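#struct-help
A.M.: can someone run this one for me? Single chain, 344 residues.
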Amino acid sequence: MTTGTLSVVVPCYNHARYLPTALGALAAQSAAPLEVIIVDDASTDDSASVARSFAARHPFMSVVRHGANRGVPETLKTGWERCRGDYVAFCAADDMVRPRLFEKSLSLLARHPRAGLCSTLADLIDEDGRELGPYHTRVISPRPVYLSPAEFVSTYEREGSWLLTYSAVYRRAALAESGAFAMTAELLRNLDAYKIFFAGAKYGACFIPERLVCWRRLEDSWGFRSLDGGLRESLEHLERLERCLRGPRCAGLFPETFFQAFWRRSIDVIIYEHCRRRPESVRELAQLEARLPRPTRLDRAFFAALRRGWGGAGLAKAYITLHKPWAERGRLLARKLAGLGGGA
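D.P.: on it. Structure tokens below:
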């Protein structure tokens, strides 16, 4: 079975400490990529020299260096414009892929050539590379599976997002059709989300229920820094993403029920991260009620309590749990019990 070729883009800014692990894992893949394009965004540490040393030893690796810092979306775009493979993966310079990620992803995609992307589960690692156990995301199937476009949308509406951007392998033609890299100025922080939603809703998505990547959870990472702008800025970025998903390229892909689920899931994430990072200012969350679609009695009671100053981080976390489906509540309870028992 012919699996097609893979281009890998590694955006890098001041990741010299982690880059050897990331690039070493890419070099050790059981299915070697066609090319690994390392894009250094004008790092001020030794990232460029580390990348060049790997490229000197591995002919399929190359290094592109920006003369000035442009930010993550433009760095990804630089790599994307050089990709030649049938498929594309965007691998962070501070994460790590396990040896069979590409082999298994490309094999499943070859069996379902219409699919827009494939993703897997992940483990968490800390700053020093110590494993912290599984990253808890939804397991939508106990075995490798392909979801049609309609199944992709309905599963998101029911389960929320199960796709991990740092494990995703995209069909290059689907990404090109999405126009994502022509909209970096509009999408900014939500470039990855747009890529996933378009590819999955237009062509369907594959899923492998194995932990084939390791996400290094760093509080100063680009993903977490994007949450520092406050609630208003977070909402503005989500509104930008919604405009793109309602744009001409996405015509007919997303029903209104998708956008209702999108806003409810997104607001849950904002509430969770705000409570984790700013537990002293939970009352600010009351402003989110205006953006919540079809509020329930529970929603109205929660936001009323916030406006009166009655609620804290504990109430917010209880609220997030209580309006989830019963199956998801059971999974959350099981994780808590595992944690109390010393499990991961």
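A.M.: thanks! The mean pLDDT is 90.
D.P.: also worth noting: The chain has two domains: 6-223, 261-340.
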